[in-house]
């Protein structure tokens, strides 16, 4: 009888790997969001993605290919869009499934007075293939 408490070691390894990838994605994004970030910081994020990666954010423009999203990151960086106001990300919950992770999280922002504020709760779904992120779906 399965009590639900035992997971095969392969499943545990996959869950750890997916969780590590999501954590790396957020950590690298926080680095890019700082004033002194570099194009190499952006490149580090995109190393996590498959060649045919897609980013889907229906509320803000819909579907973006890897190349379009990359150009958006580079343009934001060149235009001063990454000003250091986003200080951190707080993951509230992470549900790991078969080759996917659903995340609820908040960005932590700061102001010139050094005060921080928690952003709204947002949901993101990550899909994985061949050890990389193949799709990100934003539901906020």
UniProtKB/TrEMBL annotation:
Domain of life where this protein originates: Bacteria
Domain SnoaL-like spans what residues? 38-135
Look up the signal peptide feature and give its range. none
Which InterPro entries does this UniProt record tie to the protein? NTF2-like_dom_sf, SnoaL-like
Which Pfam families does the record match to this protein? SnoaL_2
| Protein known as | Nuclear transport factor 2 family protein
Q: Which organism is it from?
A: Leptobacterium flavescens
